[in-house]
Amino acid sequence: MDNVREELDRLIQHNKDDYSGLSRLLGRNPAYIQQFIKRGSPRKLDDEDRRKLARYFGVDEQLLGGPPPAIHNGLVEIATLDVDASAGFGAIAESENSQTRFGFDERWLKKLTPSKSSSLSIVRVIGDSMEPTLSHRDEVLVDASDHGARLRDGIYVLRSDDTLVVKRVALKPGGKQITISSDNIAYPTWDDVDRASIHIIGRVIWFCRAI
């Protein structure tokens, strides 16, 4: 259970959240999260609290003490979040919820990424700002462990206030500033953004689309 507390604290620090704010998000007293992390009380998260926190951080519940992803006939189940990662001007993330799961071949998934399946989730792209790379209603596989020290040039899902956006990120020389851009040139580019000011949900590592 100690690793759950450490993981939750890491997520909080990375997102620049605070214990009391997350406690209020859960409808708990302001000291609830701090007591769980620092004092070990309660011993484990309530199931509904765990689900809310996993939705908020965009991770599988397993990272926060939930059951491991099921493996059926060699297929690993990855959570599909009921939230749109806008490739336009942002989609409200209040309704994040894990409703369905997508099965990936276990061996194929290991070749795609060394990350644990609990760090992976699927979200839907809405909008055309990432055309032609990503199209409206594409489904993208997001690695929530791929940020921080691992941040590099690529496509990421970012949290901006109460919205999720999918954008291309490029590191500037020195690594403290980044450029956030859209592949569609009709949309603006943000240069010299302070890397520490951006809340990164995870890196897009794979996508699929209907034909």
Layout of strands and helices, then pairs:
Layout: H1 2-15, H2 19-25, H3 32-39, H4 47-57, E1 71-72, E2 75-86, E3 91-92, E4 98-105, H5 106-112, E5 120-126, E6 139-143, E7 154-160, E8 163-171, E9 177-181, E10 190-194, E11 199-208
Parallel strand pairs: 2-5
Antiparallel strand pairs: 1-2, 2-4, 3-8, 5-6, 6-11, 7-8, 7-11, 8-9, 9-10
Describe this protein's structure:
This protein is of the alpha+beta class and 211 residues long. The protein is 22% helix and 34% strand. The protein has two domains: 2-44; 71-208, Umud Fragment, subunit A. Strands 1, 2, 3, 4, 5, 6, 7, 8, 9, 10 and 11 form an eleven-stranded mixed sheet that branches. The longest helix has 14 residues, at 2-15. It starts with a helix and ends with a strand. Residues 89-98 have low confidence and may be disordered.
Q: What's the CATH superfamily of the largest domain, by name?
A: Umud Fragment, subunit A
Radius of gyration: 17 Å
* Element-level helix/strand string: HHHHEEEEHEEEEEEE
Helical residues, percent: 10-25%
Largest sheet: 11 strands, mixed
Quick one: CATH class of the largest domain? Answer: Mainly Beta
Unreliable runs: 89-98
> How many domains comprise the coordinates?
2
Distance between the termini: 44 Å
Mean pLDDT: 83
The outline comes out as globular
Topology-level CATH name of the largest domain: Umud Fragment, subunit A
- Structural class of the helices, strands and pairings? alpha+beta
Q: Find the count of extended strands (DSSP E, 2+ residues).
A: 11
Oligomeric assembly: single chain
With helices defined by DSSP (H or I, 4 residues minimum), what is the helix count?
5
- What portion of residues belong to β-strands? 25-35%
CATH architecture verdict of the largest domain: Ribbon
